[in-house]
Write a structure and sequence with these properties.
Distance between the termini: 69 Å
Largest sheet: 8 strands, mixed
Strand order of the largest sheet: 10-9-11-19-18-17-12-31
Number of strands: 31
Radius of gyration: 27 Å
Number of helices: 20
CATH class of the domain at 34-142 and 210-301: Alpha Beta
CATH topology of the domain at 34-142 and 210-301: Aldehyde Oxidoreductase, domain 3
CATH superfamily of the domain at 34-142 and 210-301: Aldehyde oxidase/xanthine dehydrogenase, a/b hammerhead
């Protein structure tokens, strides 16, 4: 058995094979959601609210229904009544009644772009004409789009059935504050009294979108037998199945979700928007129906990350020891309750060993799209606040910023403010790698140039995964799993199976299949797939190896325990067979060999990363140019280093956009004014340099190959690192994201 041990030399893990889906991706043969086509398929469009907040008085669909080429029109009256019911989607719990209202509005619209009605027609042009013929009478209501405004007692109330949940205690009156979170460790008053220096600052961040290139798309076929099949781009086919079945109020066994290739998600393609609508249109029309969002619909009608207001206070002794930390964080949840305020409160002080800490968090509903996860949801906001204040402390104490972080870094045994005690982690190691890096030790010369450093954390998760595999006569193995592949997980999972079996990565053929073809598997999110689904593949490999050993024993007429296995070679008393040679004899010696496993690993895998950035600021325009960027991160064990590096680089680029340009811009009526990639400015290759990466490997003790999740940590440090670099370049501390040229120019003007 290929049991991994510390320091062992792997044959597959750590190499860089060509990804199994590479040929299809580069030749255009891979099937994405919009590539699904059926005979007599109809095309749908969704009518969306022009108001940020309004009561729906009436909807008249008669003219649209009689329009030539229209086969079906639906409104919320075609949907079952949904009561308050909480459903676990694998990366969070959602109220199905709120989810249903977000799919098609009932009594009120709560943000511009909320879906109100939908049509299915012979082509997209007829569908677009038809939705213009639906007449909706609205009663406009006051709107609120800033989190602190929404918390006021006299703010427009979005829901009369939302009551503040304060650590399990419900308020007696309706409120826009749907949740409060309070964490306390030690005594912060004692901690601050022991400090020689205390720094407190306030921060604001704007709403930003994940920026995936592929819009949301779903095709549904409601069959005559009552079974519904959905083809869609999703981060979780089982989560999609659960939501669709619950919203349609049909048995979960009646819904099959076929995951297509996905053109990006980053947390934004977990919840459903189009899938139940396409299914209802299909039921009403008797044909398959495809719905695809336009780009403005993606911005206005799906879930971005929250805007926020934060206040962080830190105290330290003159020799650089942190004595206390206090954070007050308010996130906007968008139109419906639920959001990443919990992770923000968990992560804000997660990189450091505080004896005394206090965190207060507030989740607030307001008239913006319902927020969704975006790569380490909540942690990027929190790191901006904590790391910026920490850097100011280091500056005022005249302590090297990396030394200051090392002096206070979390280690094994550190207890976070929210309770968990760290096992073996790599926080210190990534800081030491940053200290030793060429970037940190290279001079930075020239006017208006500065270097910044920031540390970031994401706890990652395990959740549930299933996998199976069967051995083919030619010695290859077909792997079946249910984790949507966004960043190369087919390869990383196949490589773990190959390593376990002692075969090559190319000899494993991984397949991502539908919800009827594999056991339950949670979403591709939380940096869990290579860890958890990889663990399932490892156990599948052990199952196969056990069966292969028994088959070899039968051939040699000996007990199975007398057969040894080393690197895929089965041996007994001088006889040996390779995996492929033994596979060739399987049909002659018995039934087929199928391995299977399902896992639900507990606990977090804890990812830490340090980012170094050099910038140059143009004082005349406020434009910030990124000159150099290095990402250092603990991967536990890099299964496929190229994909780990890609995750590190991709997260950094998204964080750069978040830091410098990206924001939802709302007018005073709650209307988003920049719902296109022309006006919502994500980074291009002209905006970022080549991004260097340093992979640190501190093995995760809870995984046989030491894997830690890597996908989310890289987006956490960039805004903080860039804000610190800007300060070191021109002397101003930016506390409002994005740090766009107008904002920075204004700050520079006020400074002078």
């Amino acid at each position: 058995m290929n049991t991994p041990t510390s320091g062992s030399q792997y044959k597959v893990i750590g190499t860089r094979p060509i990804r199994h889906d590479g040929a299809d991706k580069v030749t255009g043969k891979a099937k994405y959601g919009a590539d699904v086509k059926f005979s007599k398929m109809l095309y749908g469009r969704v009518l969306r609210s022009p108001h940020a907040h309004a009561r729906i008085l009436s909807i008249d669909t008669s003219e649209a229904e009689s329009h030539p080429g229209v086969f079906a029109v639906i409104t919320t009256t075609d949907m079952p009544d949904l009561v308050d019911k909480m459903a676990d989607l694998g990366e969070g719990v959602v109220n199905m009644a709120h989810l249903g209202d977000n799919v098609l509005a009932r009594e009120k619209v709560l943000y511009k772009g909320q879906a109100v009605a939908a049509v299915a027609a012979a082509n997209v042009h007829i569908a677009a004409e038809a939705i213009e013929k639906i007449k909706v009478e609205y009663e406009p209501l006051p709107a609120v789009t800033w989190v602190l405004d929404a918390m006021h007692e006299d703010a427009p109330l979005l829901h009369d059935n939302v009551f503040t949940d304060d650590m399990g205690q419900k308020s007696e009156t309706p409120s826009n504050v749907d949740k409060e979170i309070h964490f306390l460790k030690g005594d912060v008053e004692t901690g601050f009294a022991a400090a020689d220096l205390v720094v407190e600052r306030e921060f604001k961040t704007a709403t930003v979108h994940q920026g995936y290139i592929e819009p949301h798309v779903a095709t549904a076929d409601w069959n005559e037998d009552g079974n519904v099949t959905v083809w869609t781009s999703t981060q979780g086919s089982f989560a999609c199945r659960t939501q669709t079945a619950e919203i349609l109020q049909i048995p979960i066994s009646k819904v099959k979700v076929v995951p297509c290739e996905i053109g990006g998600g980053f947390g934004g393609k977990i919840t459903v928007y189009l899938q139940p609508v396409a299914a209802l249109l299909s039921k009403k029309s008797g044909r398959p129906v495809q719905l695809t969002m336009q780009r403005d619909e993606v911005f206005e009608g799906t879930g971005p990350t929250p805007g926020s207001f934060m206040r962080v206070k830190l105290g330290a002794t003159k020799d650089g020891k942190l004595t206390a930390g206090e954070a007050w964080i308010a996130f906007d949840a968008g139109a419906f309750p639920g959001g990443p305020i919990g992770p923000a409160c968990m992560c804000v002080f997660s990189c450091y060993d505080f004896e005394h800490a206090k965190v207060d968090g507030y989740n607030v509903v307001l008239n913006k799209p319902k927020t969704q996860a975006y790569r380490a949801p909540g942690s990027t906001h929190a790191a901006l606040a904590c790391e910026t204040v920490l850097d100011e402390l280091a500056e005022k104490l005249a302590i090297d910023p990396l030394e200051f972080r090392l002096k206070n870094a979390a280690t094994e045994g550190t207890r976070r403010v929210d309770g968990p005690v760290y096992p073996r982690i790599g926080c210190v190691e990534v800081l030491q790698a940053a200290q030793a890096s060429d970037h940190w030790n290279s001079p930075l010369e020239g006017p208006n140039r500065g270097r910044g450093v920031a540390l970031g954390f994401w706890f990652n998760c395990g959740l549930k995964s299933s996998a199976s595999a069967h051995v083919n006569p030619d010695g290859t193995v077909t792997l079946t799993e249910g984790s949507t592949d966004i960043g190369g997980s087919r390869a990383s999972i196949a490589m773990q199976l190959a390593e376990t079996l002692g075969i090559t990565a190319e000899e494993v053929n991984p397949q991502v299949v539908d919800t009827d073809s594999v056991g339950y598997t949670d979403v591709t999110g939380g940096s869990r797939v290579t860890f958890a689904t990889g663990l399932a593949a490892y156990k599948v490999g052990l199952d196969i190896e056990h069966q292969m050993t028994s088959r070899a024993a039968a051939l040699w007429d000996c007990p199975p325990e007398q057969v040894s296995v080393e690197s895929g070679v089965y041996s007994h008393n001088g006889d040996s067979l390779t995996f492929a040679e033994l596979a060739e004899k399987l049909h002659a010696t018995g039934e087929a060999i199928v391995g299977r496993a399902t896992v639900a690993p507990d606990g977090a895998t804890n990812g830490f990363g340090v980012h170094l950035v050099d910038v140059e600021v143009d004082p005349d325009t406020g434009k910030t140019t990124i000159l150099r960027y290095t990402v250092i991160q603990d991967a536990g064990k890099a299964i496929h280093p190229s994909y780990v590096e890609g995750q590190m680089q991709g997260g950094a680029v998204q964080g750069i956009g978040w830091a410098l340009n990206e924001e939802y811009f709302f007018d005073d009526q709650g209307q988003m004014k920049n719902a296109s990639f022309l006006d919502y400015r994500i980074p291009t290759f002209l905006d970022v340099p080549m991004i260097d990466t340093i992979i640190v490997e501190v093995p995760n003790p809870d995984h046989p190959y030491g894997v830690r999740g890597v996908g989310e940590t890289p987006i956490v440090p960039p805004p903080a690192a860039i804000a610190i670099a800007i300060h070191n370049a021109v002397g101003v501390r930016m506390t409002d994201l994005p740090m766009s040229p107008p904002k920075l120019w204004k700050a520079l003007s006020e400074q002078s």
